[in-house]
């Protein structure tokens, strides 16, 4: 072959080798298990959509990052850049069949032609769950329970779900007669951590015509800190007289009480009136989730309540609440915290192919281990045992089965614990094989 | 909103609603479980590849069907049209890190701008597993075991794995001095079912210069039928004197013996010397899998052995063997055979939200059911019980939990079997709740 093509991936795209893919699949399976346990059902939508569907909703930035082209029928099409726009289109199209309330999860790839300098990728997974078509606070509360169960199921204990409710700020703005200028106020407030209170007040004066008293009140709300009780106590006078603000306050109180009743440890919930994600999108409760060991990587699961999911595609109002697990960020965190086993095999047991003529015996042995629900790989070639064990070590198998002519003739097999190096001979009659493997793989503490 | 956008999907693309997606996810999870149990590990590759990678390998037809365009950096890119080309590119790029033998599975979407008239879709899933970098017959045999385990795990009993080995025909052609004309001979032979033996012989004469004796011998081999023993007996004289043909015959014999030793029921394996899929690609064993209740839908799992996976991208020779599960075809078959439960909830238990002020009790109740490993959805609104049970029915929940003020005060809950209509009151103390649910959901036969 004269003209060989260089094997390479596009800039901003990546292959997942087994060592990266195994923990990724585990994480996704855990998320699915938790979502399903609450009755969220899976959906999928096409990677490609009519371009008008996609450009209808995103920001200028996402429009610029869209992968778009003309297909074989000269239709303008684009690759989805998130799962929210497809959800809106899907809900508008199918809600009459689906009925409400409707709970779905969607775990799928999305594409953005982003600048890759910041270590960002142009293809990544999103992992969303939402409850559509109900205004009930029970759905808001349940979202907290899902997040709590999800991180617990992933093996985390020390994490914090930060809660806010947009009604607090909206109520305050109402009280301050700034309700019609909430967008510039929020835009300024969003820069608080970056530019400081003084500059934010200046911007509010310029873009929203806020007086210094008005901006001071807004900054006071955003700056409240302390225990949940402290924050609730300090918020109360700020929203007094505003029905909207009172409602937000009551909803946060109810959420804390309900989550505690449902078993979420109190230390995991933290009111934080400074969070204001999704400037124009969220209208009620807002969630962010932080790993206390790694707060700097940012929120690993975020979401909130919105009023009208699919207004661009249907006149039917579809309020909802949901959140999205930040898969890549979480995997990166788990890597940093050494929570990810470095293996490139999904099967724990390795069967050495020792004596070439004994293939049938090894096939039977491996099939027997699998029948006990334990993954078992048989090496395909009767190579030297050292080479085979090297292969097994490199891939992270935990146990090797070794049986030569003598062992097989005597009805035995050696079980070698690849972590400790210990070997035990067990008989192939009875269930010694299965029970020994089980005790090595799932030791009772 | 004046300019509403019509919510619709592109022609040839489809949304998966929960009722379609739930069995789809189950099927994929079963396939993963079986692949993993043999030590196949997962990988993933980007949806988008450099166009030269994709056009390097496919046929003229796949080139025409490619979704291709220029990205933001003016690179020509395309959406992958199968998982074999990405596997070849991936293996060429990473095999030094991965080492051989290397076993991978890959379950992902592919895209082809096909004519949609034949009910074909432009986006569909492939579900492949392969063992790369070994010539060992043990890997060929294992592929049969994987297919057998896979369909057994999916609940099938009556299916047939059809086996052939390309060495038989190659050996015969060698004997007939037609080895250098195998491509036109195969191309003609491939039309046997369509145009009949006479026309095939004519074509072989025209395109391969085959004499009538030569084409008769080829047609004789392709026409052999009967039990596995019959076929083996009849093939033997046809390939006598050809080392290649003898090798193919021996490999089929060994495969049948080894599969039987490993526990595959004999009735499931059928030698079929007429199958010749992948004209130029497969070089050894070939597999096709048929559901005996629905043979007409064609093979639902096909594959074979190939000599050189990645010759376009590397000088390293990478032989391999593998197969691909026909996910959509199989789901269609399972639908026709009524093997798919029509539900749109992944959780079996529904908790009625009966008394508004009792939210904490219901949250606790649902959390308790989930903690027992049983999915439980709590309705988010305290609507009329009839409405809630209608919702539960429509979605296919199996059990409803109903508790009003009196029940809760007495520490009881009603467990309503939604299939039989029966209700039982159980106490919330002890484990009556969990054990009653378990006995309804998993009745012992």
* Count of discrete alpha- or pi-helical segments spanning 4 or more residues of chain A: 16
Mean pLDDT of chain A: 94
CATH architecture of the largest domain in chain A: 2-Layer Sandwich
Q: Give the count of structural domains of chain A.
A: 3
Write down how many β-strands of chain A occur, each being a DSSP E stretch of 2 or more residues: 16
N- to C-terminal distance of chain A: 58 Å
- Shape, principal axes of CA atoms of chain A: elongated
Please characterize this protein's 3D structure:
The structure is a homodimer of 445-residue chains. Chain A is of the alpha+beta class. The first copy, chain A, has three domains: 12-158 and 292-342, BirA Bifunctional Protein, domain 2; 159-284, Bira Bifunctional Protein, Domain 2 (BirA Bifunctional Protein, domain 2, 2-Layer Sandwich), CATH 3.30.930.10; 349-441, Anticodon-binding domain (Rossmann fold). In chain A, 43% of the residues lie in helices and 18% in strands. Chain A has 16 helices and 16 strands. In chain A, the strands form three sheets. The first copy, chain A, has an eight-stranded mixed sheet with strand order 1-5-6-11-10-9-7-8. In chain A, strands 13-12-14-15-16 form a five-stranded mixed sheet. In chain A, α13 (359-371) links the parallel β12 (349-351) and β13 (376-378). In chain A, α5 (137-153) packs across α11 and α6 (166-175) packs antiparallel against α11 (243-261). The longest helix of chain A has 20 residues, at 18-37. The radius of gyration of chain A is 28 Å and the shape is elongated. Chain A starts with 17 loop residues before the first helix and ends with a helix. The mean pLDDT of chain A is 94. At the A-B interface, α1, β1, β2, β3 and α4 of A face α1, β1, β2, β3 and α4 of B.
């Amino acid at each position: 072959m004269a003209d060989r093509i260089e094997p390479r991936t596009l800039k901003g795209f990546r292959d997942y080798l087994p060592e990266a893919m195994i923990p990724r699949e585990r994480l996704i399976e855990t998320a699915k298990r938790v979502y399903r346990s609450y009755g969220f059902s899976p959906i999928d939508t096409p990677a490609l959509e009519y371009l008008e569907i996609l450009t209808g909703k995103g920001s200028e930035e996402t429009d610029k990052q869209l992968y778009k082209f003309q297909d074989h029928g000269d239709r303008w099409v684009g690759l989805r850049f998130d799962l929210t726009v497809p959800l809106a289109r899907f809900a508008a199209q199918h809600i009459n069949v689906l009925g409400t309330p409707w709970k779905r999860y969607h775990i799928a790839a999305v594409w953005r032609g982003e600048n890759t300098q910041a270590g960002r990728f142009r293809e990544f997974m999103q992992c969303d769950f939402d409850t559509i078509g109900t205004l009930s606070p029970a759905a808001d509360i349940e979202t907290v329970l899902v997040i709590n169960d999800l991180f617990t199921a992933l093996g985390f204990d020390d994490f914090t779900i930060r809660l806010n409710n947009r009604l607090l700020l909206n109520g305050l703005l109402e009280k301050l007669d700034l309700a019609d200028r909430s967008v510039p106020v929020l835009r300024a407030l969003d820069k608080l951590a970056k530019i400081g209170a003084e500059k934010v007040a200046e911007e509010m004066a310029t873009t929203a015509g806020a007086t210094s008293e008005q901006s001071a009140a807004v900054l006071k709300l955003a700056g409240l800190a302390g225990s949940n009780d402290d924050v609730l106590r300090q918020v109360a006078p700020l929203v007094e007289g505003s029905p909207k603000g009172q409602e937000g306050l009551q909803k946060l109180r109810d959420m804390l009480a309900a989550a505690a009743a449902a078993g979420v440890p109190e230390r995991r919930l933290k009111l934080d009136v400074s969070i204001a994600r999704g400037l124009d999108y969220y209208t009620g409760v807002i969630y962010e989730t932080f790993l206390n060991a790694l707060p700097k990587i940012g929120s690993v699961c975020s979401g909130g309540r919105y009023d009208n999911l699919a207004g661009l595609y249907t006149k039917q109002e579809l309020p909802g609440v949901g959140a999205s697990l930040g898969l890549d960020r979480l995997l990166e965190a788990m890597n940093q915290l050494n929570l990810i086993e470095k293996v490139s095999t999904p099967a724990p047991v390795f069967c050495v192919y020792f004596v070439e003529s004994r293939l049938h015996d090894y096939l039977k042995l491996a099939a027997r281990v699998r029948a006990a629900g334990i993954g078992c790989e048989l090496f395909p070639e009767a190579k030297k045992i050292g080479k085979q064990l090297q292969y097994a070590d490199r891939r992270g198998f935990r146990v090797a089965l070794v049986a030569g002519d003598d062992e097989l003739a005597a009805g035995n097999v050696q079980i070698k614990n690849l972590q400790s190096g210990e070997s035990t001979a067990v008989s192939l009659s009875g269930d010694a094989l299965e029970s020994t493997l089980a005790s090595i793989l799932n030791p009772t503490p």
